[in-house]
Amino acid sequence: MPELQGSAGENKPGSRTSRLEAVFLAISVETDLSAADMAKYKSDNKFNAVAFAVMTPDMLSAVVAAFGHDAANPPSTPHVVVSSDGAVGDLSTGPEDPASIVASLGSP
């Protein structure tokens, strides 16, 4: 599991920054994508620290109902932060630098 170092969350006594654990999960909206094709894509692009999954048609419908059609548009790089307590943040689109991701982990 990747560890991010940043200022989000509680600091341990005596430390200047906290260590956060994060799981990056990429979920394909291509509901008919095979596991073999997904594994090849992950390997070809060296996404070693990212878990991949494929949405079912029902999940895709639920995601669009919850977040709108932007959530099903891969070129817009839609992403949502879900905290360790299950709180779900808002849908964001576009590339995001690591510092912004770390900051959002403290308050989804």
Q: How is this structure best described in words?
A:
This protein is α+β, with helices and mostly antiparallel strands. It folds into 2 domains: 25-55, no CATH class; 57-108, no CATH class. Helices cover 27% and strands 17% of the residues. The protein contains 3 helices and 4 strands, in the order βββαβαα. It has a two-stranded antiparallel ribbon. It is globular, with a radius of gyration of 16 Å. The relative contact order is 0.19. The model is unreliable at 1-16 (pLDDT under 50).
> How many structural units, i.e. domains?
2
Unreliable stretches covering 5 or more consecutive residues: 1-16
What is the chain-wise order of helices and strands?
Answer: EEEHEHH
Strand content: 15-25%
- Biggest sheet architecture: 2 strands, antiparallel
Strands ordered across the widest β-sheet = 1-2
Q: What is the rounded distance between the termini? A: 20 Å
**Strand count:** 4
Number of helical segments?
Answer: 3
> What's the helical proportion of residues?
25-40%
Using the CA coordinates, give the radius of gyration.
16 Å
Task: Describe the global form.
Answer: globular
Summarize the model shown.
The protein is an alpha+beta fold and 108 residues long.
Write the layout of secondary structure elements.
Layout: E1 3-6, E2 18-21, E3 24-28, H1 35-44, E4 50-54, H2 57-67, H3 98-105
Please tag this protein with its features.
disordered N terminus; two-stranded parallel sheet; 3 helices; alpha+beta; globular; 108 residues; single chain; two-stranded antiparallel sheet; 4 strands
